[in-house]
């Protein structure tokens, strides 16, 4: 495996130094930057595109969850926290791992093992990386996005999402029985999605073709799709022709 690029977002300089000392024991991790607040962290992550994010949850002004909500593409995230209630909550966010402060070297090493396992899995799924800037900006099946809807939050793999649907100015996201709202427009979402998996069936909806259970002819040359989760989706007449060609129907 190539070097793992890591970013630390943590308001305590002492805690940042502690993490850097622990990372020295792992020669395949390179710290490409550190930030002491969310706004600095957001800028740093967009500039460096790290593989791994060490993120403090409880920071002044904006917390770690707000940072994840700002990002289009979320790196593998390991939460660092001094508060047990945050650590428990982080499981709801599907974080890869959390580490309680002060950080134990053995516990830290276990977290790094999980990181490497997930990165290896993502490399296998995606195959060779495309070097173009456009490809790097696109999400892949293993890319994560962060969704916050009310008090609930999720880190969701793009490949686990079956359907995106317009609701007013926002987008409902369907995955694994969940249907939270993403506070971005469908057009914003569509720009980042991998085109080989996702298809705009009409003005309101984008589907993941891997989750289609059934396709039937519908009125006026249209198609109707049934998704694995049971939702029925009508493909517009124009998009039905394109869909048939794409799927070789």
Automatic annotation (TrEMBL):
Protein's UniProt keywords contain Phosphoprotein: yes
SUPFAM superfamilies (UniProt xref): CheY-like
Signal peptide residues on this chain, from the entry's feature table: none
Entry-linked InterPro entries: CheY-like_superfamily, LytR-like, LytTR_DNA-bd_dom, Sig_transdc_resp-reg_receiver
Entry-linked Pfam families: LytTR, Response_reg
Organism (species): Cellulophaga lytica (strain ATCC 23178 / DSM 7489 / JCM 8516 / NBRC 14961 / NCIMB 1423 / VKM B-1433 / Cy l20)
Protein name, entry field: Two component transcriptional regulator, LytTR family
Annotated ranges, domain Response regulatory: 5-116
Xref: SMART domains: LytTR, REC
Residues annotated with 4-aspartylphosphate modification: 56
Keyword Phosphoprotein listed: yes
Keywords, ordered alphabetically: Phosphoprotein
